[in-house]
Amino acid sequence: MARGKLRIHLGAAPGVGKTYAMLSEAHRRVERGTDCVVAFVEHHDRPRTETMLHGLERVPCRRLAYRGGVFPEMDLDAVLARRPQVALVDELAHTNVPGSRNAKRWQDVEELLAAGIDVVSTVDIQHLESLGDVVESITGVRERETVPDEVVRRADQVELVDMSPEALRRRMAHGNIHPPDKVDAALSNYFRPGNLTALRELALLWVADRVDAHLTEYRSEHRVARIWGSRERIVVGLTGGPEGRTLIRRAARLAGKGAGGEVLAVYIARSDGLPSASPKELAMQRTLVEDLGGTFHHVVGDDIPAALLAFARGVNATQLVLGSSRRKTWQYAFGPGVGATVAQRSGSDLDVHIVTHDEVAKGRGLPVARGARLGRSRRVWGWLVGVAGPPALAALLHAVDLGLANDMLLFLALTVAAALLGGLFPALASAAVGSLLLNYFYSPPLHRWTIADPKNVLAIAIFVAVGAAVASVVDLAARRTHQAARLRAESGILSFLAGNVLRGETGLEDLLERVRETFGMESAALLERAGDVEPWTCAGRVGHGRPVERPDQADVDMPVGDHMALALTGRVLPAEDRRVLAAFAAQAAVVLDRSRLREEADRARALAEGDRIRTALLAAVSHDLRTPLAGIKAAVTSLRSEDVEWSEEDRAELLAGIEEGADRLDHLVGNLLDMSRLRTGTVTPLIREIDLDEVVPMALGGVPDGSVGLDVPETLPMVDVDPGLLERAMANLVENAVKYSPSGTPVLVAASALADRVEVRVVDRGPGVPDEAKERVFEPFQRHGDAPRGAGVGLGLAVARGFAEAMGGTLGAEDTPGGGLTMVLTLRAAGSRPELRHAADRAAEPERQASS
């Protein structure tokens, strides 16, 4: 069944005409031939509103007593039974009187929508949950009746019913809203011009946000690339440098100059995945922009100006804020820079602001951690080689004269070794100490800090430059190696997640355990909530850390959308780990949604199976119910006829036909009801200990005398069964066996004990059933062979097996030696499984109390 559509008339305050607009809409729909009813409308004794109710069908309200008074409420059951195309339900945020089926009227509306009924409703802006604090600060009144924002956002249509504060106050003064004795108090309190203006602005902004969301969806669907300046949306281009905070604050001030301004910060990363910015600085800027009400975005692109402009046009931005270049003057020889290129390519539909900052012309290099990329032991050895190595080498070469060129090569080799071990700074120290020693011991004049030959000056300078270059290359290689290893690990994790997405293998708890192990945390939990003000609930949790009830209580939290978050406890993660954590969080949300979709699919399959059963039922009963009914109808008509004088024998025969038809109907309807109970899972066995000889004979009442032979020893142990279900199952088995047994050949019902089980065998000498059909005979609406339609609808064995399994037993079919079919019903002996009996007793206790 398709879900109904919800249309909401939203107003800034009471009295703007929401109910009047709703009733006007109802009259228009009725004139078009739509089946529209008034489920609940409160006219508050307003004459014009009450007049609009004339000509509309109204569903009578329920009257509920509460605290000495009687209050009208919408009769939800009556509306569902009436089943109109459209129902009018006033005051969506209304709290129902205690005793109603639902606590809130919007919950009643949800039931109507689920039943496929369109609903037209009304709500004031102050009744939205997320605006409760704002409205209280404006009016000084705390709204107690609220509706979740998500309910209103999900509406198919939201129509703003607007009225200026002056016009609303005039309506109030004329007595069109409140009785005359309350007008002065209302005008001087809630309906002050300032209050109404602020509430009107809230309503306009809320509707504008909704319209903007629909506009974004439309632009995406129709691939509109040109910017539509419908509202101010400002994009801030970040490089990861410290000037980013200045740019964000500047953009926030620009957005604050106009109502509804929005700030989007974007960082363009290179496609090779190697970070060129400080992760810590980016994390700080992300926090800043989110604190100022904006959003942070991470985009990949090697052409930074093109990526910035594509992002700005993709979000329909009107302004782009960039920082002045950090390049030094000579660096402009390599190109005009990002700011100038973006301004040149922006066109006439996008304004570009170049903002100055303290980092202008200080160079493009960003602070990065260098030594931390190498292990501690390597750095220690690097400093030992870089500082102590040159004096040791000088002492070694003091006794051997190899010439200045060879000496410099040896010192250079030592500098390279220091670079390979400890990175940049130990190598620079080695080059500096080595150059001093070369100058003092090996460059004429010896043992003096001067150099006589200019060629030696050049040689030493080249030595220092080569040492510094080698050290820089080794340090860069070490950092890139660390980054590559990290990215390789990240790619392995992301590949694992992608594989799980495709295969759908990992459960939520397994994924959370993987998160906990990957990041070395104490616990991991996935939290969710239904709305902005709803409490957080835990969808899944692993680990032994402290329990977390809200994301802000965790050491690390990663939001997933608006109402879900992955919370970790144990330690604080570095900023560079959040990228992979975000992938885990998104996958956790996918796993949770997938599990819920699987549950929905299971329910859908159950409904489909129910539909199949109902279809087969209709096909079956079309003949099997009408045949006995036709016979009963004919017999009764004949008996009531005054034109024919029936003899006693004829009258008895007609009455016997009526009785036989009624018995067939009773049996058929009983099986149909039993199958319905089994399919809906409402069979609750009342397990107790009983002797078979108390139940089995009672199951033979519907078969002819002499058609069944019993062999139920009195020495059999008692069984744990529901007597009523067992009797029904045995009756179906015996009736089926008698139906297919040859005339004059009785059916044998025999029972025997085997270990902790008791077997009841129903043996017939009929035609039997092939092995491939033995399981099929237990399916609903199955008749074996060429059984006539009058033999039943094929539910007897299906009901018998369902009742047997409900009692913890089994039912199967075997060949009878010498020909025929044997049904084997296996039951649990009393005391063999007490937990089943106790669980069934607990499940049935409410039913016993209700019946008592």
Automatic annotation (TrEMBL):
Entry keywords, A to Z: ATP-binding, Kinase, Membrane, Nucleotide-binding, Phosphoprotein, Transferase, Transmembrane, Transmembrane helix, Two-component regulatory system
Superkingdom assignment: Bacteria
Pfam families assigned: DUF4118, HATPase_c, HisKA, KdpD, Usp
Topology in membrane: Multi-pass membrane protein
GO molecular function annotations of the record: protein histidine kinase activity
Domain Histidine kinase as annotated: residue spans: 620-831
Enzyme class of the recorded protein, top EC level: transferase
Region ranges (Disordered): 832-852
Keyword tRNA-binding: no
Membrane-spanning segments: 380-397, 409-437, 457-478
Protein name, entry field: histidine kinase
Organism per entry: Streptomyces africanus
Taxonomic classification: Bacteria, Bacillati, Actinomycetota, Actinomycetes, Kitasatosporales
